[in-house]
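For reproducibility, we list the full input for the NAP complex.
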Amino acid sequence: MAEKLALVGIGKIARDQHIPAIAGNPDWLLEAAVSRHAAVDGIDNFATLDDVLENRPDIGTVSLAIPPQPRFDYAARALKAGKHVLLEKPPGQSLAECFTLEALAREHGVTLFATWHSRYADSVPRLKAWLAERRLKRLKITWKEDVRRWHPGQEWIWEPGGMGVFDPGINALSILTEILPYPVHVSQSLLEFPENRATPIAAQLTFADPDGADMSAEFDWRQQGPQTWDIEMETDRGSAKLSMGGEWLEIDGATVIQGSNHEYANLYARMADLVRTGASDVDLSPMIHVCDAFSLGRRVTTDAFEF
Ligand code: NAP
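The corresponding predicted structure, in tokenized form, follows.
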């Protein structure tokens, strides 16, 4: 039988991805939306999560598509009420929040899924399998986009906990931590903060690879013209390039996956499996890299940013 679900935060990602992915999966029934401003046709609409908990006790799962800063309070309330919870990325604004949510999910015997949508691109398992049989020599992440185009008017990304350029950058780190056969750690970080903002507009990271591979990442929100979401790698037996955030994959110069995007469909299918099997999935490794980038970061002040 399909699981009933409430979606919290009817913003950009809820409309672009969550609502269509839920509608396309027979394991889920979208029964309620929680929004301070918007409404979704054909279902119950509530102003607060407490209204859902009170009026629709039959809904067993809550999906949180709100920014990271308010997310902990919503997630904690839902878990304490015995609901399964799906968290948009990043799973919180701090690691300690995520540890607390994990403990709450265990205590209340419910599923917690800290999602990393980029890991659910069709190219990622393919690339992981390819890399598992090779020795990595070099890996370069280039994630450069125009913040005005992709985050128009989103003030929360510039506030503490909003992560700045790591909001998209953590997607690359979620792919990195999924495809590598071993853990790496950030060894150097350079962060550029606009003089009027609390989060970085650009970042350069170097990683220490236990096997000696040259590994780095460049994130920038000031990219005009073509946008770049690439991970390039060279190994002892060939090269690979993932582009468009995972929609395209080239191996040794030949395109093996092109224009494929089933991330949110795959992600809601995974949530259904987790609920069915009574499991949780909380991998904080991409978040650890971001937190380390902040703690190791040499900070440079750059031009003020206005939308
Ligand atoms: P958004 O449109 O700015 O915000 C989403 C919704 O969250 C808002 O429409 C609002 O919904 C609610 N909200 C905002 N501030 C809130 C607050 N202080 N308290 C309670 N609710 C609040 O953001 P978004 O782009 O959808 O991103 C939301 C999350 O999805 C972020 O963590 C982001 O990293 C992730 N994400 C975004 C994208 C993307 O392409 N935009 C892609 C993947 C993942 P109501 O007005 O309905 O209350």
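Residues 3-114 form a domain with the Rossmann fold fold (CATH 3.40.50.720). The chain has a mean pLDDT of 97. Both points were considered when choosing residues for closer inspection.
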